[in-house]
Design brief:
Layout: E1 3-4, E2 7-9, H1 13-40, H2 47-74, H3 88-114, H4 121-144, H5 153-190, H6 192-204, H7 212-245, E3 248-250, H8 270-292, H9 299-331, H10 338-341, H11 343-373, H12 378-405, H13 439-461, H14 465-507, H15 516-522, H16 524-556
Antiparallel strand pairs: 1-2, 2-3
Helix pairs in contact: 1-2, 1-5, 2-4, 2-5, 3-4, 3-7, 4-7, 5-6, 5-7, 5-16, 8-9, 8-14, 9-12, 9-14, 11-12, 11-15, 11-16, 12-16, 13-14, 14-16, 15-16
Organism: Acipenser ruthenus (Sterlet sturgeon)
GO molecular function: proton channel activity
Main location: membrane
């Protein structure tokens, strides 16, 4: 058995892992081939795509139900759990996105019912199957997110990878559908002939909405697609952690220590909340302004407002990330042991760095086009500065979140006021590795604590030694609390800023997509492909950054 970081493998993982990974690759490639083939034929309501996805969702739901029934019957899943996985805030976020997905399914079902004369029965059944899959998956992840599965490892690994492939293909289906719509809208804006033909096609299309209820269903579903995307990606990460923890058992005798619940104090983070609320308010104002000035003649003015607001926001986020990184460096709290032991932390950082490649790629492409074109108009200058500061902000935020996620407890913080007064046994100064204490060790601990307390009280009665003995710990505690308060405000402000940028990505203007400089330099098709491919990564990056910042904030409340 291989041992790593206090865990042992309970079953041979290599053959089952290889088989499950191969299953994931094959199913993902098959689904991608079907999705891309239908996209090239411009079939948004293809029965082949939705039929294949329905088969995957039904198979994954059947496996989850069987696993849940077997686990409830044996109750063995409660013996081995990973308390780092399946945080309560992660489950709450998953439930919110699942609720939005269920509402999306209701709108989609109503929309397909309205255009029943030109669609297939599979399209009507697809939202119902997706709703069943959503409810089943949320129940499964809420109940077993912390479980380290021990029985039937090969079968359950394949089941987890099949569910992971299903979520990835559902995400890809929505992304391709939304990207196709964006490309059509962009062509209609800048090409008069295509705009006229698109209008004529809409008028003559028998599948177009003819009732107000149909328009409500269609528009409502369009606004809920981003939440469905986040639900698929959140589920994928939790399924991967389950797959990674499969077969692992604690090597120590005692159970893992449960994390204490954080105590939230609004007064301590009021400055960060206030600034973040102002940023969110300005974000909604910027979105409304962009909607009213979306015409071609007013578009440059709307882009100037967007670039100016984004530059100010990115500079504030960059300064906050640098300040937070500096505070962590001054505290010298990095714990490199977590980098190899904690599956959840390693996955968080890997997703953070991987998804940041999306916005970074768009910024690098944009700066390259502006630099080699040599056209430095006011709009191009704003675009250049926007791309440059966005690159710095993403890199700085990645460094800050990685440093914060892997930070350990402050080793310089004294666990009691009498640490500096006498010769306390150092073995009790930090948390013990063992989970079970014997009666003799506990009595020795209590006796030593009482002796040290009496010794400190005697020193405190002395007018010369009392102040010297207690002044340094109190000063250290005051400084530490001040740094912690600053850090918590930085975390809250960055969290709300990332939510604001996520809202801009999803519902606001997309300046890079309509920039004429990049379109002329790379060509319309290539540039639109780059932007639409990287945009989903940027959306998930902002949401994942907000989730990671919230986790760091909860951890800072426990220090």
């Amino acid at each position: 058995m291989s041992e790593a970081g206090g865990w042992q493998e309970g079953c041979s993982p290599k053959p089952a892992s290889l088989l499950s990974v191969l299953h994931l690759i094959l199913v993902s490639l098959l689904g991608s081939a079907i999705l891309l083939s239908e996209m090239s034929h411009h079939l948004p309501h293809s029965p082949r795509v939705h039929g294949f996805l329905m088969v995957l969702m039904l198979a994954s739901s059947a496996w989850m139900l069987c696993f849940g029934w077997q686990s409830r019957k044996t109750e063995k899943h409660r013996l081995n759990v990973d308390h780092h996985a399946g945080a309560i805030w992660l489950k709450a976020g998953l439930a919110i996105f699942a609720l939005a997905t269920l509402i999306l399914d209701c709108f989609s079902f109503g929309y397909y019912r309205e255009i029943l004369h030109c669609t297939s029965p599979l399209m009507i059944a697809f939202p119902l199957v997706q709703a069943v899959f959503t409810v089943t998956q949320v129940s499964f992840l809420s109940s077993f997110a912390k479980v380290c599965i021990q029985d039937w490892c090969c079968l359950h690994r394949v089941g987890l990878m099949n569910s992971l492939a299903t979520n990835l293909l559902l995400w890809m289906n929505v992304v391709l559908d939304e990207s196709t719509k964006q490309l059509k809208e962009l062509r209609s804006i800048y090409t008069e002939e295509q705009q006229d033909s698109a209008q004529n096609t809409t008028l003559s299309n028998s599948c177009a909405c003819t009732t107000d209820l149909c328009h409500i269903f269609r528009d409502g579903a369009a606004h809920l697609h981003p939440f469905n995307i986040e639900f698929s990606l959140f589920s994928s990460t939790m399924l991967y952690v389950l797959w990674k923890n499969m077969g692992r058992v604690p090597s120590s005798l005692g159970p893992q220590a449960r994390a204490r619940r954080p105590a939230f104090r609004i007064s301590a983070i009021f400055p960060g909340l206030l600034l973040g609320a102002l940023v969110l308010s300005a974000t909604f104002g910027c979105i409304v302004f962009g909607v009213f000035f979306k015409a071609k003649d007013t578009l440059p003015h709307a882009l100037q407002i967007y670039y100016t607001f984004s530059l100010i926001l990115l500079c504030l986020m960059l300064l906050s990330s640098c300040a937070g990184t500096l505070v962590y460096r001054l505290q010298k709290r990095s714990s490199f042991t977590f980098r190899t032991e904690n599956v959840v932390r390693n996955l968080d950082v890997a997703l953070l760095v991987g998804c940041s490649c999306g916005p970074l790629a768009v910024c690098i492409f944009s700066m390259t086009a502006i630099f080699f074109t040599g056209s430095l108009s006011s709009l191009n200058s704003l675009d250049l500065f926007f791309s440059f500061f966005k690159t710095l902000q993403v890199l700085g935020q990645n460094l800050f979140i990685s440093e914060a996620l892997f930070s350990g407890p402050d080793e310089r913080h004294p666990t009691a006021q009498f640490v500096l007064a006498g010769a306390l046994n150092k073995s009790f100064d930090s948390e013990s590795q063992c989970a079970v204490w014997s009666t003799m060790e506990s009595s020795m601990q209590v006796q030593m604590d009482e002796d040290e307390k009496s010794r400190v009280l005697k020193m405190h009665d002395s007018p010369h030694m009392g102040a010297a003995a207690f002044q340094k710990p109190f000063l250290f505690t005051s400084r530490r609390r001040g740094r912690a308060k600053i850090m918590q405000n930085i975390l809250v402000f960055l969290l709300l800023c990332n939510i604001a940028v996520w809202i801009l990505y999803v519902y606001g203007a997309r300046p890079h997509l309509v920039s004429e400089t990049e379109q002329n330099f790379y060509g319309f098709t290539l540039w639109a492909t780059v932007v639409t491919s990287c945009l989903p990564l940027g959306i998930f990056y902002r949401m994942h950054s907000a989730a990671s910042l919230f986790e760091v904030y909860c951890k800072s409340q426990l220090d």
